[in-house]
Write a structure and sequence with these properties.
By secondary structure, this protein is α+β, with helices and mostly antiparallel strands. 42% of the residues lie in helices and 15% in strands. It comes from Sesamum alatum.
Length: 1330
């Protein structure tokens, strides 16, 4: 490509001795052309290397032996990777062109399309189109004949820099259907628009894949005088402008078409709109359809055009506008508008085109990149600057960053030498700007300072500069590739604060570089490595690692096709770069699986591994090799310990890496030229050989004691090593399954795509997808077949399940016949089950080799696996709706496959949850997902079983019912086993109910025990909810502990079970709790057991008293220690309950009474209600309530107790009694008899009399009777007493003596036969009613 100034060699000086020019002049283009040594072989290089189309059996054969030295790792790591040969028809056409002595310029057009992964090449008068990602063995090529009217105009002259004389734009009609997934699958419909740069001939193929391909539509030599002048910036063209157009018509033939883009029109079939820009400042618009091509001038750069006319006739040297690209920000393919960018000599312009109606084009914005403001782009008119050329631009995938390639012609004022500076200008949209509808004048801003690629390159003429093209988007992230007209490609990457350049350079002549693209990556929103299309050597890739390791800082070496002038220093720089970056380069061959492209952490795709790791791995490999040769392991453990081989864990452990290299070895004798069927015939043997070697490796670990060390120090590493064996066993079984399916397909009529080969079916397509993904992620494997890569890369077997999650719609298309969808789904299910069972069998056979499993998640229980399994299972569940459209055998087979797939999926979930629990991680979300999907699968499977039974026995006779049960038992046996294993209790219950098999139910209840009751608890719940309480209690006879655990949530039945178990004390506690429960409990259970069927109702006071009586009886029957106190407490609660009943008799019928009848009132509410009713009897009952409660209740409600004494004093007319005592002159006996009838006397007798009885404390401790007795130790902080309460009464000034006499006499004149006196004085517990 471009090169910095360098001292010319002696040979070069002799060759150019006749050409005298100073340092300021521009070199002639002719001096850059390679000499033609042989007239028979055009463009042969001076090296005299063999013809590039000689037979190639592998990529390694193309690398000269001189580069395969002992330090070949360092060299190979920076070499490009051979991806694939041209299709044979292309190679034949090239040979034919060579034999016919066709000029090289006439056959040097080619290119690549990123969206469709199509490559194209023109040889002679034919256009060849093929998918460059397809393996060679399955590569198809479409050949299109160019119309005879497209021959080149001889007046245009020839240029050594114009490689591609044709511009080609590929239109993918299926783009709207493929946006959801990056699937490498040939588009079913593709159109092509191509334009000759020189002759301005436009050709349009509506559909190149159509069986009845139509002839192309052509527009030969379009010119301004022939175009439709419909609009120019939205205005009509004036007659004066048309006159000026005629003045320049003589120069039209010298103008070149610089760029071409095309886009499908959503509303039209196989129709597109295309834009082209020419070097005379004209923007062309073409409407292409199968019926014809309409050509219009859409926009004119009038300032540039007029400048050329006024100054000189060499207007073509202006060369602008340069580039057209679609602005591909995130958008729907069905949107009616698209934006495109146009690069002029000083700015970027953005246009919007409507893809419907009149296809109007409007200018949205423009941004000056070459001007006086350096903050907006490139500042011009600086010292030393002579001219600035914007050469090309490109946009990243998100459409947010625009990169422009800039060339600046400069002159050093000190030395008077001229040079060219190449740089990259990156612009981004300002924050807050809506890319889809940008508004405002300043839309863009600099993303970063200008990145200078080469500060002082040699001077080139404009023709060479304008041949340069820019591409962005490949790896490493942020890199760009620059293509030049002399056929070179250079990758520029800014890394570690410096720009590094990597020149694409093949071992020997490959012709010129025609185009470059980016390999699509399987990862979302990411691109892969750079892909390069050469003129004679096929397609090559530039790995990310090669750019990082092989890039050099300019101008350390020349970037021209002549190579480096100091190769030794280059090698030294690479070695220093490798050591400084802590990067261990590996051989860049197809066997280097872990070459760095798959890695995301660390150095942008390069795996960080220390030299110590490399040495340890090399030592381990050598020791293992010695073991294979001699069987000796003496001193192995010590040597590996000394090399620190046991310090890394996981994937980077040296033992893990060695195990992976064993199972992932790529067969050297497998070549894609042998065809897939022949190649697959040796797969089984290769896999068995890998298995034997892996087993030898395990023996080596055991004999050398390394296994013990790994088991104790690196459990995860040992787990991965054993999982390699599992995956290898699974791959072997998968290969056998594929062989069986292939033979079945070959002998049967079933092939959706019409293929006659054995390489067909869903499993084969899945293998192709997984292999394709591995090839795309590791460009070192691009020369291998998909199936070869799949069967070789054993350690990535889980990618099968990842592909099922992402690409299932492409493996089983909805367009396929329904019976074929069922068949392919069964194939995929069988493949998944085969892998899983093979892994489980390997684990069972080698269980002694495994480390302790606690906290380790098996590979088949990771999210990537069960997500893929669930995707397939979901699809199969959807197919169940169409199962009636297939025959009985297909139904049965489909059900069986779905059943075993469900078992595998649930087992995968179960292992993952177990590992999370052992690691003490949060597993609730995963557990809920597992439950939900388990129930979905099992319910669907059981419904299908019932449908099978119903289909076989449509009549519901008694004989058929018995036969139906037998059939259901047979069909549901496996399902029942799965449900039992994964606690699918609903399915187990449904099967038992439909079979009406109580023995089976009891058997499952015994087998499915759990910490929370297991299946038994579920059965009890079902019986309880369905009111089958008799059955529930009878099951308790056999499952006593389980029912007792369940009935803890249902105490209305628990006491019955406790009575059955003779746990009378427990039954008494339960009954006591039920009777005093504040929330309503149903007692319908008791009544239903007795045979009556009454509706549920709330507990009434009578029912609560009934439960209290039962509790008292149960306590007496139990006779446990302290049962007397329990009986007294129950009796006290009965008395409190009786007070509430008495209140109800005194309260008139109203809403309040109804509310009291429906609930149990606490003692405080009862006491307050007694005070509210103002009844003499209830006034005394308030003191009884205090006496039937606890001491704590008394202490906490002292004020309420005082209020009760005030209420008691108010029940009698003390003023009247005082007047009578004076008037009648009462004696002591009369006074006593009269006072005994007062409420104060009776209350004092209840609370302070000689027969006063209370629970847990006395009234004296809370409220003493007399003021002088308030010296009780518990009442030091209060002066309250009954006397002080009475002193506040209104009659106390006159009848105070009589009132005090009443309470004093009551306290000493007790009546043991007082009605409703409290009992059970010795109970020291709190009342449950409180």
């Amino acid at each position: 490509m471009f090169s910095p100034p360098a001292k010319k060699s002696t040979l070069s000086a002799r060759k150019n001795a006749a050409v005298q020019r100073d340092g300021n002049s521009t070199p002639l283009a002719e001096n850059r052309r390679p000499p033609i040594d042989s007239p028979a072989v055009p463009n042969r290089p001076a090296t005299g290397t063999p013809a590039p189309w000689a037979s190639r059996l592998s990529v390694l054969a193309r690398i000269p032996p001189v580069k395969r030295s002992d330090r070949g790792d360092e060299v190979d790591a920076v070499q490009p990777v051979y991806v694939g040969e041209f299709p044979q028809v292309v190679r034949d056409a090239q040979i034919m062109s060579l034999q016919n002595h066709v000029s090289a310029d006439a056959s040097s057009s080619g290119g690549m399309d990123k969206e469709t992964s199509l490559a194209w090449m023109i040889c002679g008068n034919r256009l060849f189109v093929w998918n460059f990602l397809s393996p060679a063995a399955s590569r198809e090529c479409t050949v299109l004949d160019l119309p005879s009217t497209t021959s080149e105009d001889g007046d245009m002259g020839k240029s050594s820099f114009q490689i591609n004389t044709w511009l080609v734009s590929v239109v993918n009609w299926d783009s709207s259907k493929r946006t959801a997934s990056k699937v490498v699958k040939r588009s079913s419909s593709v159109g092509i628009v191509m334009c000759n740069k020189k002759t301005r001939t436009l050709i349009f193929w509506p559909d190149i894949y159509s069986a009845s391909r139509m002839s192309p539509v052509t527009c030969v030599g379009f010119s301004e005088s022939e175009a439709s002048y419909l609009r120019q910036n939205g205005k009509g063209i004036s007659s004066k402008q048309r006159k000026n157009d005629k003045l320049v018509n003589n120069f039209t033939k010298s103008y070149l078409i610089n760029s071409l883009i095309a886009s499908a029109i959503p509303a039209a079939t196989n129709s597109c709109i295309a834009f082209a820009c020419s070097s005379n400042g004209v923007l062309w618009r073409f409407l292409c359809s199968p019926s014809g091509i309409e050509c219009q001038i859409e926009h004119r750069m009038s300032d540039i055009f007029s400048q050329g006319i006024d100054s000189s006739p060499l207007v073509a040297s202006k060369g602008y506008p340069r580039s057209l690209i679609w602005h591909s920000f995130s958008r729907s393919s069905d949107e009616p508008t698209r934006q495109f960018l146009l690069l002029t000599n000083n700015e970027i312009q953005c246009f919007e085109v409507k893809l419907a109606s009149q296809f109007d084009v409007s200018k949205l914005w423009s941004h000056e990149i070459v001007g006086t403001d350096g903050d907006l782009g490139i500042q011009k008119d600086l010292a030393g600057q002579k001219k600035i050329w914007p050469l090309d631009l490109d946009v990243d995938n998100d459409g947010k960053v625009i990169t422009i390639l800039i060339a600046i012609f400069c002159k050093d004022r000190v030395t008077s030498s001229s040079y060219t500076e190449y740089s990259l200008l990156t612009m981004q949209f300002k924050s807050g700007v809506d890319i889809s509808k940008p508004i405002g004048e300043k839309i863009l801003e600099k993303k970063a300072p200008i990145q200078v690629i080469i500060p002082k390159a040699r001077v080139e003429d404009e023709e060479f500069l304008f041949s340069m093209r820019l591409k962005v988007g490949g790896k490493p992230a942020g890199s760009a590739i620059i293509l030049s007209g002399d056929g070179t490609a250079t990758v520029s990457h800014y890394w570690r604060n410096s720009t590094r350049l990597y020149q694409f350079d093949l071992p020997y002549d490959a012709g010129k570089v025609l185009d470059a693209s980016v390999f699509p990556s399987s990862d979302d929103n990411e691109d892969g490595a750079w892909a390069v299309l050469t003129e004679k050597a096929g397609v090559w890739a530039i790995p990310e690692r090669a750019v990082l390791l092989g890039g050099v800082e300019p101008p350390e070496r020349s970037l021209s096709r002549k190579g480096s002038s100091n190769d030794g220093s280059l090698q030294e720089e690479r070695r220093n770069f490798s050591v400084a970056g802590n990067i261990a380069p590996r051989r860049a061959s197809s066997e280097a699986w872990d070459a760095g492209d798959r890695q995301r952490a660390g150095l942008t795709g390069v795996a960080r591994r220390s030299p110590q790791d490399e040495e340890s791995e090399a030592l381990l490999s050598q020791l293992f090799h010695d073991f294979l040769m001699s069987g000796q392991v003496d001193g192995v453990l010590d040597k590996l310990k000394n090399s620190r081989a046991f310090e890394r864990e996981g994937e980077i452990n040296v033992f893990t890496r060695t195990s992976k290299s064993i199972v992932d070895t790529l067969a050297k004798h497998w070549t894609t030229t042998r065809g897939p069927e022949i190649a697959l015939s040796v797969v089984s043997t290769q896999l068995v050989e890998k298995q034997q070697k892996h087993q030898k490796f395990l023996q080596f670990l055991a004999l050398s004691k390394c296994h013990e060390e790994l088991c104790s120090r690196q459990r995860q590493s040992l787990q991965i090593i054993m999982e390699h064996g599992e995956k290898l066993a699974g791959m072997i079984q998968l290969r056998e399954l594929q062989n069986t399916i292939s033979h079945a397909n070959a002998s049967g009529p079933d092939s959706y795509y019409g293929s006659e080969t054995r390489t067909s079916g869903a499993l084969w397509d899945l293998i192709q997808f997984v292999g394709e993904k591995a090839r795309r992620n590791t460009v070192l494997l691009m020369d291998r077949d998909n199936a070869e890569v799949f069967y070789s890369k054993v350690s990535d077997l889980e990618e099968v399940f990842h592909c099922l999650e992402r690409q299932l719609d492409y493996v089983i298309s909805g367009d396929m016949p329904i019976h074929l969808q069922f068949q392919r789904a069964c194939q995929l299910s069988e493949a998944c089950v085969t892998i899983f069972r093979a892994a489980m069998q390997y684990r069972s056979q080698h269980h002694l080799w495994y480390p302790p499993p606690e906290g380790l998640t098996p590979w088949y229980s990771k999210i990537i696996v069960w997500s893929g399994l669930w995707s397939l299972a979901t699809f199969m569940l959807q197919l169940l709706n169409e199962i009636n459209r297939v025959d009985d055998s297909a139904r049965s087979n489909f059900y069986s496959n779905l059943e075993v797939l469900s078992e595998v999926l649930l087992e995968s979930y179960s292992n993952a949850i177990t590992a999370k629990v052992e690691r003490k991680e949060d597993h609730r979300t995963l557990l809920e997902e597992y439950w939900k999907r388990r129930d979905t699968l099992l319910d669907s499977l059981y419904r299908q079983v019932k449908n099978f039974v119903q289909a076989k026995l449509p009549d519901s006779t008694e004989e058929n019912e018995e036969q139906g049960k037998d059939i259901m038992m047979t069909l549901s046996s496996n399902l029942l086993s799965i449900a039992k294993r994964h606690e699918g209790y609903q399915t187990m219950w449904s099967i038992c109910c439909d079979l009406d098999d109580s023995e089976l139910l009891r058997s499952l209840m015994h087998e499915s025990m759990g910490p929370k009751g297991g299946f038994s608890c579920f059965v009890f719940e079902q019986l309880y909810e369905s009111k089958q309480l008799s059955k529930l209690m009878r099951l308790g006879e056999e499952f006593q502990d389980e029912l007792a655990m369940f009935l803890k949530q249902h105490p209305d039945l628990l006491w019955l079970h406790e009575v059955f178990l003779h746990q009378f004390s427990s039954a008494s506690e339960t009954l006591h709790a039920i009777s005093l429960s504040k929330d309503d409990k149903s007692i319908s259970a008791v009544e239903e057991i007795d045979g009556s069927r009454v509706s549920r109702c709330s507990l009434t006071l009578a029912k609560r008293k009934h439960f209290l009586n039962l509790a008292k009886i149960s306590a007496a029957a139990g006779k446990n220690t302290g049962y007397e106190l329990k009986m007294k407490r129950i009796e006290a609660d009965k008395n409190i309950l009786q007070v509430q009943e008495e209140m109800l008799r005194l309260i008139p019928d109203n809403e309040e009474k109804q509310s009291i009848e429906q609930r149990l009132l606490p003692p405080v509410d009862l006491i307050e209600l007694c005070l509210k009713i103002q009844n003499r009897e209830l006034s005394l009952r308030a003191f009884d309530l205090f006496a039937w409660t606890s001491a704590s209740f008394l202490r906490n409600n002292t004020s309420l107790l005082e209020e009760c004494w005030r209420n008691a004093a108010n029940q009698d007319d003390w003023q009247s009694l005082h007047q009578r005592s004076i008037t009648e002159g009462w004696s002591d006996e009369t006074t006593l008899e009269v006072l005994k009838e007062t409420i104060l006397f009776q209350a004092s007798s209840k609370c302070y009399g000689p027969y006063a009885e209370t629970f847990d404390g006395k009234f004296e401790e809370v409220l003493p009777l007399r003021q002088e007795s308030s010296e009780h130790p518990n009442l030091k902080d209060t002066s309250s007493s009954v006397e002080s309460v009475l002193m506040q009464h209104k009659d106390f000034p006159d009848a105070g003596k009589l009132m005090l006499t009443s309470i004093v006499l009551g306290s000493i004149w007790g009546n043991s036969t007082a009605d409703c006196g409290p009992i059970g004085m010795d109970y020291d517990g709190a009342s449950p009613m409180e």
